[in-house]
Amino acid sequence: MNTLINGAVELPFVNTLLKSQNIAVMLMDSSMEMVDYSPGLKTLFRLENDDLQLRNLLKVCQHKIIKKAGSGETECASSRKITLEDGSVIFVKIKIIGLIKDNSFNGAVVFLEDETEHIDKHVLLEMKLNEQFDLMRKLYLESPVGIFIINSENARILHANPTICSMLGYTESEIRSRTAYDITHPEDQGTHIGFYQESLNNQMNIFQFRKRYLKKDGSPFWAHISVSIIKDKYGSPLYDVATIQEITEVVEAQKKVEAQDQQLSTKNRELEKYIDSNAQLQNFAYIASHDMKAPLRMIGSFTQLLNHRLSKHFGEREQEYMDYILNGVRDMSQLIDSLLDYAKIKKEDHKMEAFNLHLATEAVLRNLSKVAEDKGAEIQIEELPVEILGNKTQIIQLFQNLIANGLKFQEEGNTPKVKVLSEDHNTHWLFKVIDNGIGIPKEHHEQIFELFNRLNAKTTYEGSGIGLAYCKRVVDLHSGKIWVESELGNGTTFFFTIKK
């Protein structure tokens, strides 16, 4: 039995069509796969011998052919816009005729006709509008930013795309029952209203602002919002189209930066106070060296002269008073000398050079040899770097102050033991000065480096209260750090770093 087209046309006629140079036709099997086509099809699509390109172009039409055939229609027609390989556009009329055999679908013959020159302008406009609508809908549904369409009159949410629904944790039906203010953080509702009213007053159709939304679970998130106001022909607002981008991480980062700026400002103010106090200290050092030491020397000299001449006439109490004066003059002179040493450490005079640390620590041991001998102390200096970069005089004083502290602050009858060692930390040297002395309570670990800070009575341990402040100043000028680890009664370890 012959295969018929609509029960009337025989298959040989189809074979004739497939040989035509002027008619674009293709033959589909029962699975709607192309099994053959006429030379006219290549002419229509401006191809020569590239079957692959032809099949790619036909895929544009094929889904519509399958849809029509699958609906049971044995004959249908429609138009389709096709972009060719060279970028040009043609409009093709597609006519599909089903092949029926024994009352069952057995494939189809598809006729394609170029109707670009004859297509109606209204049809072109309609097709263009449909394409734009499809594109806008795709952008709306697949946009990575959230989109609301809101009734301008009552702020009711009319539409919400999947992205904003996901951000807020609502389904679209849930969110459409709310207004824009229902999902706004209470503290930011005034911000939203204020920006909206300002835009209307200034006849602005677009405005941007930040606010917090509330998710379905009640948690807030920050968003950057751009609102476009759609108005009618009389200028009255109809709809608000809002695009929403979550910026919680940005806002949190800005808060951290602001906090850091605040901390930096505080530190700058502290630094300014420090610089000011340092300038005052330098001025005081000048006054002390010229205006205080001279009269102090005079007091000391005349007191010693009086003591020498009149001591044989003094009773026990008078001699005690005289000793108080002499000791006070000596202590005051020592304090002024220490303060002058501290004030003289200035960055502009901070000469850096490479020097032999072994020779420097030998000088420290010589300077402390008398004190160490009197106390029967053990001072152990382990392997240190041979050479470091720094101010030799200051580094010697730094080691000397820390070791001297270990010798001084000891329980009565205890044999002082002090150990000095170092560690190589690539970019810097870490030094440790360890002693077995009386220790320092944890609550005083910071303040011991402050000027004139004394933790012990002067009658128990002599000193000016400047030694550790001097150490910190030297380490600071060497771009290092100094700190202490200690407990009362368990000795002390001072750490400090010197850059390489």
Could you write a compact summary of the structure shown?
The protein is α+β, with helices and mostly antiparallel strands.
What would the keywords be for this entry?
500 residues, alpha+beta, Beta-Lactamase, five-stranded antiparallel beta sheet, 13 helices, 43% helix
Describe this structure in words.
- With 500 residues, the protein is an alpha+beta fold.
- The chain folds into 4 domains: 115 residues, 2-Layer Sandwich (Beta-Lactamase); 110 residues, Beta-Lactamase (2-Layer Sandwich); 92 residues; 153 residues, Histidine kinase-like ATPase, C-terminal domain (Heat Shock Protein 90), CATH 3.30.565.10.
- The protein is built from 13 helices and 19 strands.
- A hairpin with a 5-residue loop joins β5 and β6.
- α10 crosses α12 and α12 packs antiparallel against α13.
- It is elongated, with a radius of gyration of 47 Å.
- It starts with a strand and ends with a strand.
Radius of gyration: 47 Å
Hey, roughly how much beta strand do the residues contain?
Answer: 25-35%
Could you say what the CATH topology of the largest domain is called?
Heat Shock Protein 90
Count of alpha/pi helices? 13
Low-confidence stretches: 1-9
Give the domain tally. 4
How many strands, what sense, and barrel or not for the largest sheet?
Answer: 7 strands, antiparallel
SSE blueprint and pairings:
Blueprint: E1 4-5, E2 9-10, H1 11-17, E3 24-28, E4 34-37, H2 39-44, H3 51-70, E5 75-83, E6 89-101, E7 104-114, H4 121-142, E8 146-151, E9 157-160, H5 162-168, H6 172-175, H7 189-201, E10 206-214, E11 220-231, E12 237-246, H8 248-310, H9 316-343, E13 353-356, H10 357-367, H11 369-375, E14 378-381, E15 387-390, H12 392-408, E16 417-424, E17 428-435, H13 467-477, E18 482-486, E19 492-499
Parallel strand pairs: 14-16
Antiparallel strand pairs: 1-2, 1-6, 3-4, 3-7, 5-6, 6-7, 8-9, 8-12, 10-11, 11-12, 13-15, 16-17, 17-19, 18-19
Helix pairs in contact: 8-9, 10-12, 12-13
